[in-house]
Write a structure and sequence with these properties.
Two copies of one chain form a homodimer.
Chain A lengths: L7 H13 L2 E2 H8 L3 H13 L3 E5 L13 E4 L5 E7 L3 E8 L4 E8 L5 H21 L5 E8 L2 E3 L4 E5 L4 E4 L1 H9 L3 E5 H12 L7 E7 L3 E7 L2 E2 L31 H4 L1 H12 L6 H10 L2 H25 L3 E5 L6 H15 L8 E5 L3 H17 L4
Parallel strand pairs in A: 4-7, 7-11, 12-15, 15-16
Antiparallel strand pairs in A: 1-3, 2-3, 4-5, 5-6, 8-9, 9-10, 12-13, 13-14
The structure holds a DNA duplex.
Chain lengths: 384, 384
DNA sequence: GATCATACATTTCCTCGGGAAACTAAGGAA
DNA sequence: TTCCTTAGTTTCCCGAGGAAATGTATGATC
């Protein structure tokens, strides 16, 4: 509870431990630039309050000198619930301080009415809270709700959600009163980016982007440890980069959007045309392509090409150290990975091509974990 | 000289005055969140060293209470020389603390040999220094050299310059020894962005982008007061966003690059084809288009469309508060402005279209002014 | 096995930055 | 005049963190 009012050095030490795992005090001092004395002083209250724990000796002992003691964040010190809201279901996860999932839950949404969704969230949170109690876990500290669209985390308002058709819904406040637990909300992709930044493939990078491929194509951008929000709430709209040619029309009304070519919907639709089977599913399309169906393969290959152009655009503009590709669509990733990399390499300008492309599967609860990460982040990095 | 070792509050006050012009101490305190006492304490040494001056009463007097005293940065306290290096000439400018130009100079480059360029820079600096002496100005504090390509400002090295065909040239060191004056170097577009951020249309914005149209098409991106550098030295490569269709081949070998369609070179070339006159100049093309030549107009309109797609890409990814369009190419801006705005509005996703598009002419010395701004910035914002 | 060297950790002391609040300054209004 | 209001200054104080002396636990050395 007292984490919020630590001196700057305290927060710095805590975040260093969070990002880099168990370290000795001396090592923490070196990495943060703090003096040894300051580290000791600042770790004392964190230890006393149980935010960090001593772990004993490091695995690789030093040749001589007094042996060091590892300290690490005490992940169990606080619990969070993360909830991802989609158009038709809720995904919830109970997680610890390091956003490790302890339990998950899903529930279908009967309607998209605000009151109904809030009620469903409260029920889901109750479920997870009960599970936490059963596990002997302590009280849930706060809730992080994530949702696609234009979300203002400062005011806790969903400015606009296309999937739910919501406008200016004070969701944080509503969930807070329905559950009695402090709640923060955030855009789903940005929450995922926060999770990657603190606990995933973005740890320690000066800049990186997370691209998610699924029903939509989204992107979170982190530069210098801060996730880019966009002055008007919009950022990372990779799905609507106009690099896809003129043949397909996007839901936004334009031609050329990446989403109109490379989203799972778009691929399925194109595969149906290519195969002549109007009821073809994504799984079947993948199977056909793997079996060598040229027309269907071409669909994946074209999608890969457009994705490559999109990633090259990100690299050319931002120059991130790494781009993390993730999402349901990654199930069929091997089908177009080569094409993505090839197109990316061709269109990334100069040293931008040194950008590291990595693929990470995105388990369904990962989205919800992002919510927990955002909730946790408010605790230890209460900036802004 | 003592500006570098001011306490944080001192730097904050100075930067506030730099960005927002003359203010009363009370107002400075309000804007920075500092207590009145702190403002007084911190301004005292700045006044004593001549970094700021008192300006007397504000224009709009307050109804009651003690009259306030304005304080403002003393622009003449320090001089800087900014130099922009292109493939065939040098542009130099003598500027004050606020990067206001006091004198300019140009010189042609006989060869692109490193030694020759360094010598030419030293001569140009000498010229401007003499002019400063004649004006009774004080010593030049430092030099900022800007150059397009991959520039590492930390080490003072030009990693790669396509126009000059340089690789790993320690330019800062070379100019420093040749002139005897401390020198910093920076990528030209990023330097321009720094100038806009501190002294131009980017003052006070949480994020903005500067797009320059000319022989190449470049872009500087500023987010949260920091100019994005790219992990591998590449960022803002708007010129190579692949949104331009497949019909024209770029110097980088790809099709679809913005630069292959909308740079001044590309427009001239396309206008020549459209008009059938292989010796057509840009000026003549502009005249033809203004006169109603449909084919030439179409060239400008297509370039505008592709520029609109590029700006929409920037807006969709970053969500800047404003995009500043600038460059030599802007001479013919009215010819395709409508098309740019129309395409931008169509392809900027959701609230990203609220991004403010402004056009600023780019006088030839503006590039060099960027160098002076970078040099000045090192003085008052000596971060990293 | 006593001593030493070494590196980790703690404690003590001190400096410095900036806030709180009392105080001074300078004008207008009653 | 006196009072009110806002600007600016001074004084006092507290908290954060660095420097350096001190304490501590190990292996190495004689």
């Amino acid at each position: 509870m007292t984490l919020a009012d630590q001196p700057p050095a305290g927060a710095l030490v805590f975040q260093t431990l969070l990002a880099h795992g168990p370290l000795t005090r001396a090592e923490v001092g070196r990495r943060t630039g703090l003096s040894p004395g300051a580290v000791t002083k600042v770790t004392a209250p964190l230890l006393a309050d149980g935010w960090i724990t001593e772990l004993g000796r490091p695995a690789v002992e030093r040749a001589n000198g007094r042996p060091a003691t590892l300290i690490a964040v005490h992940a169990g010190r606080a619990r969070f619930v993360g909830v991802k809201v989609t158009g038709d279901e809720l995904i919830g996860v109970l997680a610890d301080l390091t956003a490790q999932p302890l339990a998950t839950a899903r529930t279908a949404l009967a309607s998209r009415d605000v009151g109904n969704v809030v009620l469903a969230i409260a029920r889901l949170v109750g479920e997870l809270r009960a599970e936490a109690d059963a596990m002997g876990e302590r009280e849930v500290h706060s809730i992080g709700v994530t949702i696609s669209g234009d979300v203002d985390g400062q005011t806790g308002t969903v400015q606009y959600s296309p999937f739910l058709d919501w406008r200016r819904v004070p969701l944080a406040q509503l969930v807070e009163t329905a559950t009695g637990t402090p709640t923060v909300i955030e855009n789903d992709v940005r929450a995922l980016t926060v999770a990657e930044q603190w606990f995933g493939a973005g740890v320690g990078l000066s800049s990186f982007a997370v691209v998610t491929v699924g029903a939509g194509i989204g992107c979170g951008i982190s530069i210098g440890g801060r996730v880019v929000s966009g002055a008007h709430g919009v950022s990372g709209e990779v799905g609507h980069l106009p690099v896809g040619g003129t043949d397909r029309v996007c839901t936004c009304g334009n031609t050329g959007c990446v989403e109109a070519v490379a989203s799972t919907h778009a691929i399925t639709e194109q595969a149906r045309q290519a195969s002549g089977d109007p009821a073809l599913t994504m799984d079947e399309a993948v199977r056909l392509a793997h079996a060598g169906d040229g027309a269907v393969r071409a669909v994946f290959s074209h999608a890969g090409h457009v994705m490559g152009l999109a990633l090259a655009s990100v690299a050319n503009l931002i120059g991130p150290e790494r781009i993390i590709i993730s999402g349901e669509g990654v199930a069929s990733y091997d089908l177009y990975e080569d094409q993505i990399r090839q197109t990316f390499a061709a269109h990334a300008f100069g040293a931008a091509s040194e950008c590291d492309l990595v693929v990470r599967p995105l388990p369904f609860e990962e989205w919800a974990r992002g919510g927990a990460a955002v909730a946790a982040q408010r605790l230890f990095a209460p900036t802004k």
